[in-house]
Amino acid sequence: xxxxxxxxxxxxxxxxxxxxxxxxxxxxxxxxxxxxxxxxxxxxxxxxxxxxxxxxxxxxxxxxxxxxxxxxxxxxxxxxxxxxxxxxxxxxxxxxxxxxxxxxxxxxxxxxxxxxxxxxxxxxxxxxxxxxxxxxxxxxxxxxxxxxxxxxxx
Length: 154
Fold this sequence. Notes:
The protein is an all-alpha fold. It has nine helices and no strands.
């Protein structure tokens, strides 16, 4: 059966024409084979609605989080992990927050944490605030050095 549209897969799942395991298999196959960002985002949305329970799919979402090239895909993967698996989300989210280079992805992740009701996950916001404070201090220091250089020569 060739199902390339995540919404068709979800429709067949809802009508019980395919089971949850098959639906997730098809969705995972789309994510593994497409480079189309919109298709990836739609597929992740459907996967998030179906809520895979097996560790295999949770690990797969973590893999997407750390390895996809697109910040929107990484951000949505993080959101799904945070919303559906808050007790398992702390470590992968902590890891990605320390390494994410896209400001937009970083914002998507922190917004998902803010909306979470899990206090352990929310503690990651303290880490984010600390990183942000360090970054601002570093930038202020660089500006001060530049200002001193500028004043010295002019």
